[in-house]
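Ligand-bound model needed. glyoxylic acid.
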Amino acid sequence: MPEKVIVAREIPEAGLRPLEAFDVTVLSERPPGREALMEAARGAGGLLTTVTEKVDAGVLDAAGEGLKVVANMAVGYDNVDVEAATGRGVVVTNTPGVLDETTADVAFMLLLAAARRLGEGERLVRAGEWEAWGPKMLTGPDVWGKRLGIVGFGGIGQAVARRARGFGMQVAYTARSPKEDAEHEVGARHLELDDLLRQSDFVSLHTPLTEETRHLIGARELDLMPETAVLVNTSRGPIVDEAALADALSERRIFAAGLDVYEEEPRVYPKLLGLENVVLAPHIGSASIETRDKMAGMAAENVRAVLSGEPAQNPVNL
Ligand code: GLV
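Prediction:
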């Protein structure tokens, strides 16, 4: 009997092809919800999940002892309890590398949009309220030639740094340890977080969500930033304390923010919704057609490998 594989969400075709030899059930276009996921997972050998599924000990136990692999179609895997999976001998995989450039594009899109007030401008035009070109209308800080601080210098952070070079920006970064090769490649310098926040006109977050990075950017850190600064988050929502950010934005203690991720998606902290100086995107960092194909294919290939007794290409444990 072919092994049972549960694909939690409708994914691009490229993610179903590697699974043709298995008994595949695709759950739903919308997030299936915990009960439905647990029910469907019973007896599965593999789960292909996304950031909307919380895969904790309860879900792993519902799947049962036959579960061998949880392939998360994302580079981040904070939605999966990796320790619980490891304890049960379940391989957890992610999709590193393939989304770096695509997500860096969205970080830069938000950086430009927040600085140059694209959201406000669009709302004005669509409301029919744009009366004339104005010498002081919708002015914001230049991006080119400014200082960019990158928090977390992995694949996405480095791809953002390469883009910044094209804008003539000076780039600084934080990372647990200095990354000298990458530093040379993109001309970035290593700073401690507080110095980076004080010395950057733009700050872009690219660190995974862990217990150490939860609320890494809170009221204290926002106060270190210049009043003209712009914060961009395309990593994970809980890295920023949204209440503190909303206060800093409404009191103009920073100029603007561009967000793609939120503390409790899809809920957006209500105060942020009422602010003009924040650009709000619905977690679309990796949402290019090409990249979503690659992520789906990669996740599926990890499931196929483990269920065929081969090593996974992208394990984060075991
Ligand atoms: C998406 O958010 C990812 O982690 O790939």
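The mean pLDDT is 97.
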